[in-house]
Every structure is written in structure tokens, then in C-alpha cells.
Write a structure and sequence with these properties.
The structure holds two protein chains of two kinds. Chain A is of the alpha+beta class. Chain A contains 26 helices and 22 strands. In chain A, strands 14, 15, 16, 17, 18, 19 and 20 form a seven-stranded mixed sheet that branches. A six-stranded mixed barrel of chain A has the order 3-4-9-6-8-7. Chain B is α/β, with parallel strands linked by helices. Helix content of chain B is about 35%, strand content about 30%. Chain B is globular. Chain B contains seven helices and ten strands. Chain B has a single domain (about 1-225), classed as P-loop containing nucleotide triphosphate hydrolases (Rossmann fold). Chain B has a six-stranded mixed sheet, with helices on both faces. In chain B, strands 2-1-4-5 form a four-stranded antiparallel sheet, covered by helices on one side. At the A-B interface, helix 1, helix 10 and helix 14 of A face helix 2 and helix 3 of B.
Chain lengths: ~800, ~230
């Protein structure tokens, strides 16, 4: 029986090629999307699950409050947190602490390697995390100063590795930055997997950092640049433990006494760190927006729903044609269940074939999709390594079952409710209810398409708004050049920098040069304990940037009050430095109403007092994801600072050639790296851009699938009304008349769809936009355009069918009857 | 075999009832070959559908093989239909997507008959109806007469005790029609009770009994000389 059903199903598919193609194309497109998306979501969910202790590892989150207001929600905290918590709370079994250096220049003889993933890690690191060690022991590693573990990639860069024998380089040495100290290679680890929150190319021992930065890096309660992971005893109630940390904070920080802020500690499960950290500051890990990830999965499923709706729609319309067959079957003895089985078999065949096609398409488009989302994903990684294989298989089964039931049972029931004898007399009529259901389903499709079009539009508007908005600072012609980090900071350093800048500006295409600790786009550090005369007894939080005296000129800013920094404000002796420039935001924070009021006022931080000499206009130091905060410009130099060159882009090549020559003669042994600042800035919007692209991809798919549905439906409607069209034409109706008649129905449905879609899209866009500090207000006309677009597409699709019918000679259509 | 008492069938049209059958009383014995005749709209097809348990009467008694069937549930009725009856249509009503073989096989599938047995039953009937050569063709590749042969073969493959035929030759040439009628007579001789609806006196002549229906009433009911033939 089942074989017979199968045979008939395949034959029926083959005989009705047009509808089969519409169905299978729609379903397999939707399933492909679902598969790709599941793979992507699987990848995102697989983060950090490969660590065997993943379930018991938590990251310390440190919130800071001043005067009851939160001033920082950070991943960084004090070096004492891990050790002291482990000592004081039995629930905390172990800790590992990290310092993120970021940029590191690694060299061995004349061989240089620049990494942006340099990390200091303590001896517990490899006990906490299962990063594979190719050479070296997991315990006791990184316990002494000047030890490093490097990745396979780095090992192969510096050494000839034969037969994967990494043990051979254990004990070899490399040097870091300008430190002339030899670092001993004590281990080689495999490159960190891409689905790891933490990324590093080199790990130096934490002891080294203590040695270099001083004891504060070990025991300070006010030096907060460290990342801590704790291993919590299984079965511990995290909320209770976090509650206990309040006493810990009171005990060690005494309100704002110790660190100039009230400290609150929370624990973030390692497995959630990747997806739920978008509101945390000073993040060093790879993060993604979990909200967006889940929303994507939702949308993917939604698209599958659209395809099923198509199938149901086409199947119910086709039921009109198949009514006769069902009637005959019933008269020759088919029971209800047998007929339902037959429909289910057909649905199973369609869904099964579609799934097969989808698997092929998904595999084929996988590389392209990986590029679209900008993630190096593969099926094996996200599915097998992520341990999501069973989830995938289960979801595939669920899809099939759901698809088969929804697409098989409804049309069958529809047909079985008819009187067999009526059907055979040719008086088969579908009930008003099934008609209403069909209209409802089409409205649903229109609504989905319109909502997606509007949302995509708004998303792209927001992206354009952010990337084209005036930052308040001119970055278009700025070339960022790496600082002379291997050059010693000695008594002639400042003079040398000055001479270098003069030398650069000899070239006519180099208009201005500045050196600063941060360039626009970089995250900046904070000062928590700033005291100001107008806000006595309060700790204030300010951002700060160390700059030379040409920063304002290079970035073309004019002081609002007072003056910019001058050469004389600098001093090799930090204690002699006195003058500071603030930005406009700071005025209010300091308790003034006009920039002029701040000039000459004395503020204090870092245990000394400073005088405000100027107020600079605000600009967006970071991308439009971040608000502008009160900021100080400090006349402080160091070797890690970068140069900003304002270039006349008419002769960029000449300017760069001159830069290379001068750099070589002033800072021999340093590696010159440069890039245009606007390129760097665009990178901050990459994640948003990707989100936009994925949304666009979904929208196109949803519209495509909806069009397939409308196309199929329209062609059947036309088929059913062939006789009516013929009669109308004989009575004198024009082609245009017929077109209007046939399109009117669909337009009505599109209108209903728009009515449902607009409020949903409006709320969804507000929700998405609320994540942005600077955002657009959704414009009403976007929704109108979305609705119009969907209607136009529907009309176009319908007319593909109707034009033919409307043009046909009516005599032919009537003869058919 | 079957007994109709005061069978009524009407359709409600707003407050008005339109009568199709009006107090029909009829008794048909096993082995009869009954022809129902009458002008269009006389209620012939409705009567046939009621007899075939495809439609329920609005009123009256219907006893089939000594059991009251007019009040049975749809499921029960279709079971009886499946067990005892075969149906032949004017428009053949073959399934377009199935071959001749498969069309004939379909009733057996729904009766849960095993593959081997199905095969021999279909082979036997193909042979008997002389359409072995056509078994792999689709309905649209056959002439009307051939299609109706398949239709009859499908109706009798499950060995029904009652064969109901609604104008079985209405779409056929005389010669094709005669062929079908000859077949009916043979089946009747083998013991199958046949009730057919027709307009044609020529076809009626093959039967053993002729009933005239007019406006939902039996006008005339006469037994014919057996095998009066041509």
C-alpha cells in the first residue's frame, strides 16, 4: 500500500511539473536557509563548549557606581579579585587572571611579527581552558617570569618545524617589544579555535607582568585592568554567591573609599559570554549579539513557515482538480484513513525531495554564506564539534513531520468533507471557510514580506546614518602610523618626536602630524577618582587621551574656550605636567554651564592637581554605538602612541614614500605600519553591516517564496475562471478590464497584509534600534514603500498569469467546457 | 436482496422542499438484472446512489441483505458498499494518473488484499475482458469503449454481489455499448445482481426487469422475458 502511495505520489509530482517545481523550489529554498542559519546559530552556540570545565567556569563582571549611578559595566577588574575570592569563598575553587596587552611586537634576531592578540596569563590558564598543547606540560606552565607559550602559527613563523616536532623549540627564546629580555618558550599550543571567546597568539606569564609593572599588578585594589575567570563548585547557587560578593565589596572597597567607585561583582557563565556580553565594556573576547542570533533563527523558521503556507495553498487549490480522483477512490472503496495516508505520502515525498535538494544547496552555498556572515564556519565545526548533531537531526525530523502534517492533512480533510457523488457530478465547491483560510494564508505571506522589507530598509538607513554621520572630527585624510615602540623612552624622546614631525612636514603632501595615545575610533581608558571644585566630595569618571600639542590642528579642531595644548605643556617628568584640555561634555560634568567658566580651574586626579587651559569641541571618539563622554586631553608622551598624519590625498604615494624614509632614519629597528583612519572606522560597523546583509538575504528569500506562492495561486485562480473570462470577453471586456478584475483580489490581500505588517515592523524596528545610542526615527513612508513594493511584486506575478488568459481567444476557453 | 419502503429524498431550498424521490417502494431479489428508465430529472441517479449507499435517503426504510441501512453512519455504509457493491459510471471515472492495470487494482488495495493475490486477480480479469495488451496504457490512450471496459473490470474485480451502473453506455457507440451489455449479461448469469440506469430501450432489453421512473415516482415496473435479447 505504502509503495503504491509512493509510486502514485512520484507520478503525480512528475505529471504536474509546474506545481511540483513551485512547491519543491519554495520548500527547498526555505529549508536551505534554515539549514545555513541553523549551522550559523550552531556555530555561535558552540562557543567555548569545547572546554571540559565550561560548565563551572565563570567570568567576573565588575560594575562600578558613583553617587548611585553606574559609570562602568566592565569585564575588567582588580588583580586581587580572583585570589582573594578563592581564599574567602569555598564555592570558588580556583581562579585564573589575565592581562590583555593586545599589540605586541615579537622578534627573534631580525625577524619581526606583530600580533594584536598578546596576552599575559597565569599558571592556571591551561588548567582552566582546554586549548590544545602541542608541546609543554599543562600544569606548572607559565608559573615563572619571562616564560611564553606561543601558538603553532607563531612557532612556524619563527622556526623550521620538522615533522610537527614542537618539543624541539622548547627552551628557545624570543623577545617582546623593546624589552631586551629573552623570553623562554615553555609551550606551544594549537591555534585557538575560532569558536573561542578568548583569542591569543602569544601568552606571556603573568609573573612577567608583575615584574614589569610592579607589585600593584598582583595586590592592588585600585588598578583595574585585569580579566578574571573563576571555577565555581558544581551545585553552587550563583545568585546567592553574587549576593555574598556585596559583603566582599564592602569589606575590601569600603564604598567609594578604595577605588573611587562602589564595586559590584557578578558572575557570567563562560558559555554565555560570547552571546550575552554586548553591553559590557572593555571586552577582549569575540562576542556576538545573542538577541540577533536568536532572532535570525526565528526568521529562518518563519521563512520555512512561508514555504509550507505555499504548499498548503497550492494543495487546497489543486484539491479542486483532484476532487474527482478522490471521489472515485472513495467509491471504489477507499476509507478516510487510506486517503489521508495518500495525501501524507505525497506531502512526505515533496518535503523529502525538498530536504534532499536543500541539503545539496546548503552544502554548495556554504562557502558563500560563510562569507556573507563573515564567520569561518563549516558544518563539521558547528554541528559535530559544537555537539549539536543531535539537535540538527532532531530539528530535521521535526521539520519533516511538521511539514508533512501541515501540508498533507489539511488538504486531505478538505476533500474528505465533500460528498463523493457531488464531486463526480462536477458540482464540487470549496467551502467558504477553506476560501477564507487560503486568503488568510496569503495575507500572512504579504504581511511577512512587507514587514521584512520595511525592517531591512530601516536597518540599512540606520547603518548609513551611523557610517555617514559627522563624527565631529575630520578623519578622511588621516593616516594612522604605528608608534616607535622599540625605541627607548629617554631624555631626548620628546625632542626626537618633534624633529620627526618637522621632517615629515617637509613633504608638501603631509600637512600636519600628531602623536597620541588613542586615535579616533579607539576605546579609551577611564579615570574614576576625578575631583572638581564645583562637585566637592564626589568622585567623577572621565575618559582620557594622551596627546601631543598638534592633535587639535591635525584633526582640525578649534578651542571653544582657552587654548589647545602647547609644546611647553609637556615634560619628561610626569610630576611637572600641569595643564590639561577638556572636551565640551566635561563642562556639565564638572558643574559649569559655559566653557569659559572652566578655564583656569583646578581639578585633581592621580594624586595631583591639574589646571584646565582649554575646552575642545566634542567629537565621537568611538563609533556611533557609543555615547560621547567627558574626556581629558593630557600632554603625556610614551612610545606606544601612534602618529596621525593629515595627508593631501593628491599625492598619497609621495607622502607614504617620504614617511617610510623618515621613519627608517629616525626609528631604525621599528616596524612601520600604517592605515587610513576611515577604513579602520568602517570596520566598527562590520557586524552591523553583516546583520544588514543577512536581513537583506532573508528578505529577498521571503519575497521570492511569497512570489512563488502568489504565482501558483494566481495561475490556478485564472484556470478556474477561464470560462468567466471567456464570457466577459464575448460581452465586450477589454484585456485591461480582465487584468483589473483578476488583480483586484490580490491587491486587497496585499493591503490587508500591509495593515498587519506595519505595526509589527514598527515595534520590531524600535526594539532593534533601542540598542543604538544614536539612532534614526523610523519614517512612516518606509512602511508605505514596503507595502507598495510587495503589492507591485504581487501584481507583476499575477499578471504573468493573467495576461495570457486575458488575451486568449474566448472561443477556445469556452470550447473547453 | 434489497427492500425500499417509502424512500424519500428531497433538498431543502430555503423553506421549500424539492422532492427528487417521493415514497418509492421497491424490492429487488438476488440475481435480478434491473433497468431503471425515465426522463432527465426523474430521480434515476439519486435512486441509484441511495441503492449504492453513496447517498442517504431523507426518509423511509432501506433494508439491504435483511439489515436496515438507511440510518447507518457514513463509515458503516461505506463498509457495506465496499464489501458488496461495484459501481460503473457514464463518464468512466478512471483515475487519469493511473494505468489500466493500476486502475483495476485500486479497489483491491483498499480491501487490503495481498500483492500476489492482487496480481492474479487483475491478470484474470484483464484476460477475461480481453485487455491484457492495454494494461500499461493510461486512460487517455484508450477509446471510450475500452475505458468503460476498464471501468467495468474495476467495478467487478472485488467480486461484488451488486453491480450498479449509471448510464454505462451513455458515452459509447452502439457497438461498444452492446459489448458492455453482453458483459453485464454474462456477469448476471454468474450470479451478480445488476441495477442499471439508462435511456436506451436497447440496453433495457438485456435486463430481466424494467422500472419507469417519473418525477420521483415509480410509474411502471415490469418483468421482461428472460434473455429476450436481439
Amino acid at each position: 500500500m505504502i509503495l503504491n502511495h509512493l509510486k502514485i505520489s512520484f507520478r503525480s509530482l512528475w505529471k504536474n511539473k509546474r506545481y511540483s517545481v513551485l512547491n519543491i523550489l519554495g520548500l527547498s529554498l526555505a529549508m536551505t536557509t534554515c539549514l545555513l542559519l541553523m549551522q550559523y546559530v550552531g556555530y555561535e552556540l558552540s562557543f567555548d563548549r569545547f572546554h571540559s570545565k565550561a560548565d563551572s567556569i565563570y567570568r567576573v563582571i565588575n560594575d562600578r557606581f558613583q553617587n548611585g549611578e553606574r559609570v562602568q559595566k566592565g569585564t575588567i577588574t582588580y588583580p586581587t579579585i580572583g585570589p582573594v575570592m578563592t581564599e574567602e569563598y569555598p564555592e570558588v575553587e580556583a581562579y585564573t587572571r589575565l592581562f590583555f596587552q593586545g599589540n605586541m611586537m615579537i622578534h627573534r634576531d631580525e625577524d619581526y611579527y606583530r600580533t594584536s592578540e598578546g596576552l599575559y596569563a597565569d599558571q592556571h590558564f591551561f588548567e582552566f581552558f582546554d586549548f590544545e598543547l602541542l608541546a609543554g606540560k599543562r600544569t606548572g606552565i607559565l608559573s615563572k617570569a619571562y616564560e611564553v607559550v606561543i601558538t603553532e602559527k607563531l612557532a612556524r613563523h619563527f622556526f623550521e618545524i620538522e615533522n610537527d616536532d614542537f618539543e624541539a623549540i622548547i627552551g628557545e627564546t624570543i623577545e617582546l617589544d623593546r624589552d631586551r629580555q629573552a623570553y623562554e618558550i615553555i609551550g606551544v599550543c594549537a591555534d585557538f579555535p575560532s569558536n573561542s571567546l578568548l583569542q591569543a597568539e602569544i601568552l606571556a606569564s603573568y609573573k612577567t607582568f608583575i615584574q614589569e609593572a610592579g607589585e600593584a599588578a598582583d595586590i592592588s585594589w585600585s588598578f583595574s585592568d585585569f580579566y578574571h575567570f573563576l571555577q565555581i563548585k558544581p551545585g553552587t547557587d550563583i545568585a546567592t554567591l553574587e549576593h555574598k560578593f556585596e559583603a566582599f565589596s564592602d569589606r575590601h572597597f569600603q564604598g567609594e573609599q578604595v577605588s573611587n567607585a562602589e564595586e559590584r561583582f557578578y558572575l557570567q557563565p563562560l558559555k554565555e559570554a560570547h552571546l550575552y556580553s554586548s553591553d559590557l565594556e572593555y571586552e577582549i573576547g569575540q562576542t556576538a549579539n545573542g538577541k540577533v542570533i536568536w532572532a535570525m533563527l526565528g526568521v529562518a523558521f518563519f521563512i520555512l513557515l512561508l514555504a509550507w503556507v505555499n504548499y498548503i495553498n497550492l494543495a487546497t487549490v489543486r484539491a479542486i482538480e483532484r476532487a474527482k480522483e478522490v471521489g472515485i477512490r472513495r467509491i471504489v472503496g477507499a476509507g478516510r484513513r487510506q486517503l489521508i495516508n495518500q495525501f501524507i505520502t505525497e506531502a512526505a515525498v515533496v518535503n523529502g525531495v525538498s530536504l534532499g535538494v536543500a541539503l545539496v544547496m546548503a552544502t554548495g552555498t556554504q562557502p558563500w554564506f560563510a562569507q556573507l556572515i563573515g564567520q569561518p564556519i563549516s558544518f563539521s565545526q558547528s554541528v559535530v564539534e559544537g555537539g549539536l548533531l543531535y539537535i540538527l537531526v532532531a530539528s530535521l525530523l521535526i521539520w519533516l513531520v511538521m511539514g508533512i502534517i501541515s501540508t498533507g492533512v489539511y488538504p486531505a480533510l478538505l476533500l474528505l468533507n465533500q460528498q463523493a457523488t457531488e464531486v463526480l457530478k462536477g458540482t464540487y465547491r470549496q467551502s467558504g471557510r477553506s476560501h477564507a483560510v487560503r486568503r488568510g494564508l496569503v495575507i500572512f505571506q504579504f504581511a511577512a514580506s512587507i514587514a521584512l522589507v520595511s525592517l531591512t530598509w530601516i536597518a540599512f538607513q540606520q547603518l548609513r546614518y551611523m557610517s555617514q554621520q559627522d563624527l565631529g572630527v575630520s578623519i578622511d585624510q588621516i593616516l594612522r602610523v604605528s608608534g616607535p615602540e622599540l625605541t627607548a623612552f629617554d631624555t631626548v624622546f620628546i625632542d626626537k618626536i618633534h624633529a620627526f614631525k618637522q621632517e615629515l612636514m617637509v613633504h608638501p603632501a603631509i600637512e600636519q602630524v600628531s602623536m597620541s595615545g588613542r586615535v579616533p575610533g579607539d576605546n579609551t581608558g577611564r579615570i574614576f577618582g576625578l575631583q572638581a571644585p564645583e562637585k566637592p566630595d564626589q568622585n567623577l569618571t572621565f575618559r582620557f587621551i594622551e596627546t601631543d600639542h598638534s592633535f587639535d590642528e591635525t584633526y582640525q579642531m578649534q578651542a571653544l574656550a582657552g587654548r589647545g595644548l602647547r609644546r611647553g605643556d609637556h615634560n619628561l617628568d610626569f610630576n611637572q605636567i600641569k595643564n590639561v584640555v577638556i572636551n565640551e561634555q566635561s563642562i556639565q560634568a564638572l558643574g559649569y554651564s559655559e566653557p569659559e567658566e572652566a578655564i583656569g580651574e583646578e581639578i585633581s586626579f592621580w594624586n595631583k592637581s591639574w589646571v584646565i587651559v582649554g575646552v575642545m569641541p566634542d567629537f565621537h571618539q568611538q563609533s556611533f554605538h557609543h555615547p560621547i563622554e567627558p574626556t581629558l586631553y593630557l600632554p603625556v608622551y610614551n612610545t606606544y602612541q601612534a602618529f596621525s598624519l593629515r595627508i593631501n590625498t593628491a599625492d598619497t604615494d609621495g607622502a607614504i614614500a617620504h614617511l617610510k624614509d623618515s621613519y627608517q632614519s629616525f626609528f631604525p629597528g621599528n616596524m612601520l605600519e600604517y592605515e587610513f583612519l576611515n577604513n579602520r572606522f568602517q570596520a566598527y560597523y562590520e557586524a552591523d553591516q553583516r546583520f544588514g546583509n543577512i536581513l537583506l538575504f532573508f528578505t529577498i528569500l521571503a519575497i521570492l517564496i511569497a512570489c512563488l506562492g502568489v504565482f501558483g495561486l494566481a495561475s490556478y485562480m485564472v484556470y478556474l475562471r477561464t470560462k468567466e473570462i471567456g464570457i466577459r470577453k464575448i460581452l465586450g471586456a477589454s484585456v485591461q478590464h480582465i487584468l483589473t478584475l483578476l488583480s483586484k483580489d490580490f491587491l486587497q490581500l496585499a493591503l490587508w497584509g500591509a495593515l498587519i505588517a506595519v505595526p509589527i515592523a514598527w515595534f520590531a524596528s524600535r526594539y532593534w534600534l533601542s540598542d543604538f545610542v544614536y539612532r534614526i526615527t523610523p519614517q512612516w513612508w518606509v512602511f508605505i514603500v514596503g507595502g507598495l513594493l510587495a503589492s507591485m511584486l504581487a501584481l507583476l506575478t499575477v499578471s504573468l498569469n493573467t495576461i495570457q488568459a486575458a488575451r486568449a481567444n474566448p472561443v477556445d476557453s469556452l470550447r473547453n467546457e | 436482496m434489497l427492500q425500499l419502503t417509502d424512500i424519500e429524498r428531497y433538498y431543502r431550498n430555503g423553506l421549500r422542499k424539492t422532492w427528487v424521490l417521493n415514497r418509492v417502494n421497491l424490492n429487488i431479489k438476488e440475481g435480478e438484472f434491473v433497468t431503471i428508465m425515465g426522463p432527465s430529472g426523474a430521480g434515476k441517479s439519486t435512486l441509484l446512489n441511495i441503492l449504492g449507499l453513496l447517498e442517504a435517503p431523507s426518509g423511509g426504510n432501506y433494508e439491504f441483505l435483511g439489515e436496515r441501512v438507511d440510518k447507518l453512519s457514513e463509515k458503516k455504509r461505506s463498509e457495506l458498499h465496499k464489501a458488496y457493491m461495484g459501481f460503473v459510471f457514464q463518464a468512466y471515472h478512471l483515475i487519469d494518473d493511473l494505468t489500466v492495470y493500476e486502475n483495476i487494482e485500486t479497489p483491491l488495495l483498499y480491501r487490503g488484499i495481498g500483492k500476489k493475490e492482487r496480481k492474479s486477480m487483475v491478470a484474470e480479469i484483464l484476460d477475461r475482458f480481453n485487455i491484457v495488451a492495454k494494461q500499461d496504457l493510461f486512460p487517455d490512450q484508450l477509446s471510450g469503449g475500452q475505458q468503460q471496459l476498464v471501468g467495468v473490470a474495476r467495478a467487478v474485480i472485488s467480486k461484488p454481489r451488486l453491480l450498479l451502473a449509471d448510464e454505462p453506455t451513455g458515452n459509447l457507440h452502439t457497438k461498444q455499448g452492446d459489448q458492455i451489455m453482453e458483459l453485464f449479461r454474462e456477469l448476471n448469469k454468474d450470479g451478480v445482481t445488476i441495477i442499471q440506469v439508462t435511456h436506451s430501450e436497447r440496453n433495457a432489453a438485456y435486463g430481466t426487469r424494467k422500472i419507469e421512473l417519473l418525477d420521483g415516482n415509480i410509474q411502471e415496473d415490469q418483468y421482461l422475458e428472460s434473455a429476450s435479447a436481439l
